[in-house]
Amino acid sequence: MKTVARRRPLVPVALAAALLTAFLLFAAPLPASAHDSILGSSPEADSTVDTLPAALTLTFSAKLIDGAGATEVVVTDASGASVTDGAATVDGAIVTQPLVAEAAAGGYHVIWKIVSSDGHPTSGEFDFTVANSTVAAPTPDPSATPEATPSAEATAAPAATPTPQPSAAAAEDGSSATTWIWLLAIAGVLAAAVAGVIAVALKGRARDAETAAADPSEPDSGTPSER
Fold first, then answer.
1. 75 close to 97: Cβ distance less than 8 angstroms
2. Cis amide linkage into residue 142, ω under 30° from 0
3. Which residues share a beta bridge with 99?
4. Cβ distance 120 to 65 under 8 Å?
5. C-alpha dist (Å) from residue 31 to 16, 28, 34, 39, 156
6. Along the 227 residues of the chain, how does pLDDT read in single tens digits?
7. 227 DSSP assignment
8. What is the pTM of this model?
C-alpha cells in the first residue's frame, strides 16, 4: 500500500512572511531626525566683553546648508539700532557675522536663523553686554564756516582816549575862583597891616601915658584951660 504525500502551496507561506516583515519594519521605532543645534558663540550668551568685537561667531553641531537667505544674523544695541556690518558667512558649521567698528557700551541682542543639514530651518536668540564704548569723539566739520580771524588792525592797541578839555564855563569858574583867592589874600594883607598900625599906635600912646605919669611937673598940653 503506497502513501501519497500532499504538497502544500508555497504562495500563502511567502505572502505571510512578506506581511510579517513589513509589519516589523513599520512597527520598529525609527531614529528621530534631530535638527542641528548651536554649540557656542563668541561673545557667549549672557557674557560681558570689554568692547564690541569685530565679528560675532556661532558654532553649530553639523555642517549647515548655505544659500541665499538661508542664514541670517541680526545684532542690535540697547537702542534697537543694528550694529551688523554686511552679511553673515557660513563655513561648514561656523557662522561669522561682521560687526561695526564703533559701538556704545550697554546690552546687545542677537537673533540668528540657519538651515540645518537635514533641511529644516532653526532659529534662536541670546544677549550679551559690552562694558566700554568705542565711539570716537566727534571731529570738527571742515565744511563749516570758520570764525573770522581778527585782523592786525583789530588786534592793535586801542587809540588813546583824548583828555576832555575844560569848557568855557569851567574856565570861567576857575578864573573867578582865582580872583577871589587873590582878593582874599590882599584883604588879609591889608587887615594885617591895619592891625599892625593900630597896635603900634596903641603902643605909642601907652608909652606916652607912662612917661606923663613918671614926670608930673610937665604941663599937660591936652586941655586949653590949663594952659
1. yes
2. no
3. 84
4. no
5. 27, 10, 9, 22, 95
6. 555 555 555 556 666 666 666 555 554 444 444 578 999 999 999 999 999 999 999 999 999 999 888 999 999 999 999 999 999 999 999 999 999 999 999 999 999 999 998 889 999 999 999 999 999 888 776 776 656 555 555 555 556 665 656 555 555 556 666 777 777 777 777 777 777 778 777 777 777 777 767 665 555 544 444 44
7. -
8. 0.49
For residue 130 the three cell numbers come to 559690552
| C-alpha to C-alpha distance for 52 and 35, rounded to whole angstroms | 30
Alpha-carbon gap, residue 182 to 176, rounded angstroms: 10
Q: What is the CA radius of gyration of the chain?
A: 65
Would you give the distance in Å from CA 37 to the centre of its chain? 45
As a whole number of angstroms, the distance between CA 105 and CA 116 comes to 33
Do residues 57 and 94 make contact, with C-beta atoms less than 8 angstroms apart? yes
Contact between 89 and 96 (Cβ < 8 Å): yes
Asked whether the beta carbons of 131 and 103 are under 8 A apart, the reply is no
Phi, then psi, of 134 in degrees rounded to 5: -120, 15
Strand order in the sheet with 48-49: 48-49, 121-130, 106-115, 72-76
Q: Is 72 exposed, middle or buried (0-12, 13-18, 19+ CB in 10 A)?
A: middle
Positions of E strands within the chain: 38-42, 48-49, 55-60, 72-76, 89-91, 94-98, 106-115, 121-130
